[in-house]
């Protein structure tokens, strides 16, 4: 029995030695010199699906969701390639809780781990809110598309929040010229902002939904549908009105330093969509 125990102790050590010898002999192609004199602005991994937790304003807790993540750094002209596995290592080291507060730590970790000056992160995920129907108060779950884009350029952080939200719009022209109603459509609104303080996702959703003819719901009974359709009829909105309404509401928040608002109506009587966009021309400032 003693002999067998000693042999069991020796075998792992030998395997460890062979593993170390094998690693020492492996060629590191990424670190070889490149002579084409072309630096790369962004190189890394994209399309990583990763479970994350995002802060929820209503509960002050965490909402579980799944994000599609991209991680990138700059690559100087001297190097042939980057080390892709290190991006995944950085992501896993920071666990599953990803929010505005720990994104700077991830970016700095990429700068250090990959010996880079600039680091970038992109993250898209569905965000869910429970909404009550306007009359019956029945609950239904609504999903919204959210995106984080963050960059650490040297020591300066730039963070961009994007929220996509659907609303109902009813055509003012159609209402003015028609005897029997007016055509309406689903409008997709995309709001991108930079801000000096954290802006809650829920607050942007509320702002967008207040800017159309009516907000949308996942669950409506007949009495709810009556309220929603009549509300839209009483509040006709062109796609141009929609983006202007959103921008005017954004301007009431002094913490927002830059914005871009896009609206696209999926027209119900035309074989095309209607589109409008307003972008802020104020000075863009990062969050230091």
What report would you give on this structure?
It is a single chain. With 288 residues, the protein is of the alpha+beta class. It has one domain (31-279): Urate Oxidase, CATH 3.10.270.10. The protein is built from 7 helices and 9 strands, in the order H-E-E-H-H-E-E-E-H-E-H-E-H-H-E-E. It has helices spanning 2-25, 84-93, 103-113, 172-177, 201-209, 222-234, 239-250; strands spanning 40-56, 61-75, 118-132, 139-153, 156-170, 184-195, 214-215, 256-266, 274-279. Strands 1, 2, 3, 4, 5, 6, 7, 8 and 9 form a 9-stranded antiparallel β-sheet that branches. Strand 3 and strand 4 (139-153) form a beta hairpin. Helix 2 packs antiparallel against helix 3 (103-113). The longest helix has 24 residues, at 2-25. The chain starts with a helix and ends in a 9-residue tail after the last strand.
């Amino acid at each position: 029995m003693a002999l067998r125990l000693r042999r069991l102790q020796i075998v792992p050590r030998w395997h460890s030695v062979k593993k170390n010898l094998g690693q020492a002999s492996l060629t590191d192609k990424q670190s070889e010199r490149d002579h084409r004199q072309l630096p790369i602005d962004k190189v890394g991994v994209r399309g990583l699906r990763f479970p994350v937790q995002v802060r929820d304003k209503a509960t002050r807790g965490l909402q579980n969701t799944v994000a599609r993540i991209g991680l990138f750094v700059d690559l100087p002209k001297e190097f042939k390639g980057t080390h892709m596995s290190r991006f995944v290592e950085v992501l896993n080291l920071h666990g599953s809780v990803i929010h505005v507060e720990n994104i700077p730590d991830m970016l700095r970790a990429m700068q250090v781990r990959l010996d880079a000056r600039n680091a970038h992160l992109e993250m898209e995920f569905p965000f869910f809110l429970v909404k009550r129907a306007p009359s019956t108060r029945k609950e239904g779950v609504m999903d919204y598309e959210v995106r984080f884009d963050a960059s650490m350029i040297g020591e300066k952080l730039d963070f961009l929040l994007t929220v996509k939200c659907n609303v109902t719009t009813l055509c003012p022209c159609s209402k003015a010229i028609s005897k029997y109603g007016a055509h309406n459509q689903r409008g997709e609104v995309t709001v991108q902002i930079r801000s000096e303080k954290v802006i809650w996702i829920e607050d942007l959703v509320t702002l967008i939904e207040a800017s159309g003819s009516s907000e949308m719901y996942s669950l409506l009974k007949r009495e709810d549908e009556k309220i929603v359709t009549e509300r839209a009829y009483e509040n006709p909105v062109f796609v141009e009105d929609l983006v202007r309404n959103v921008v005017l509401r954004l301007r009431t928040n002094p913490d927002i330093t830059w914005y871009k608002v896009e609206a696209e109506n999926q027209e119900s009587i035309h074989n095309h969509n209607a589109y409008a966009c307003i972008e802020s021309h104020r000075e863009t400032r990062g969050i230091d």
